[in-house]
């Protein structure tokens, strides 16, 4: 599958009078990494939740390769090749790394329900293929040694990587990462940056939300800056970092 183009046009969302996203327009170009940054509460996660169908939009359009997806439920958006990771990691703690990643691969099993019920050889072949594919992903991400370890006991950085592996197992055309570097040490962030670039080079469009501006600048081809639910700047990492409005928005918060 080819990398997808994502376009948001004047997207808005409010919660009981609180304007979470006021008016956001952005394009995540096919096969590129787009960074979405901004202080806490600026509407980044809400934007991602609207893209993935978790929240319906109040206004505006969200298009994936020209098709409006703003009103589709999450499973329909996922079926179009959109995968994500969560700001608060969501994995099955008592299951192993491989089992969690296989969950992402599940929808690609080619065997039908009847084959499964009858325990036909086609099922075993399909399972073996998916397992091999997931093992290759663990290798790519550098977590093969954690294959049989329950994820509940893993470090924060490792659990984030398992989540990325699970998202990749769905064979996405667009990957959305919500603060993937949060809680990672310097070396882990370096490895993650290389991984994001490798994912892009595999032909996946990436939209990454991050607080760590160094990280975003390193991986992004294009950066969009939000503040109070509005886009305040956009451009290349170099352009955005020198903009007074961006410096001001970032100086206003402790942890940005
Ligand atoms: P960010 O990810 O940039 O930190 P969010 O998108 O999480 O920001 O939040 C933007 C604003 O919307 C915040 O004021 C937040 O409290 C509010 N918000 C987000 N989700 C909800 C929700 N489900 N219900 C009510 N308010 C929400
Ligand atoms: Mg957030």
UniProtKB/TrEMBL annotation:
Looking up InterPro entries in the UniProt record yields: AAA+_ATPase, ABC_AA/LPS_Transport, ABC_transporter-like_ATP-bd, ABC_transporter-like_CS, BCA_ABC_TP_C, P-loop_NTPase
The record's listing under Pfam families reads: ABC_tran (PF00005), BCA_ABC_TP_C (PF12399)
Q: What's the superkingdom here?
A: Bacteria
**PROSITE patterns attached to this UniProt entry:** ABC_TRANSPORTER_1, ABC_TRANSPORTER_2
Q: Which UniProt keywords apply?
A: ATP-binding, Nucleotide-binding, Transport
Domain named ABC transporter is located at 6-253
Extract one GO cellular component term from the record: plasma membrane
PANTHER family for the chain? AMINO ACID ABC TRANSPORTER ATP-BINDING PROTEIN (PTHR45772:SF7), CONSERVED COMPONENT OF ABC TRANSPORTER FOR NATURAL AMINO ACIDS-RELATED (PTHR45772)
Its recorded name reads: ABC transporter ATP-binding protein
Q: Which organism is it from?
A: Xanthobacter dioxanivorans
Q: What is the lineage of its organism?
A: Bacteria, Pseudomonadati, Pseudomonadota, Alphaproteobacteria, Hyphomicrobiales
